[in-house]
Please model this.
Amino acid sequence: MFKELDPILHSQVRLAIMSVLVSVKSAEFGYLLENIKTTKGNLSFQLSKLKDAGYIDIKKSFRGNYPLTTCKSTKKGINAFEKYVKTIQEYFKEFKPPK
Model:
């Protein structure tokens, strides 16, 4: 029947973050903010959730005098994302519309 979906990725913002990060080597906070269309606070919170789960690495540094946060997906995160996508695809295969 239907498999359970990963609760970490079953959040619109976290899924969007992972969708971006699996397609690039790394992404800066500003890039994610611009492409995901959420607030700074929410993005920061969701990044922390993904980091705590081991799905991403976060590097804090400076560019000139300004703080710079860079994120990249981990192998665990990529595997979890691929499994999540596969499970969603299986949901669609299992669904039989009424005739």
The domain at 12-94 is CATH 1.10.10.10 (Arc Repressor Mutant, subunit A).
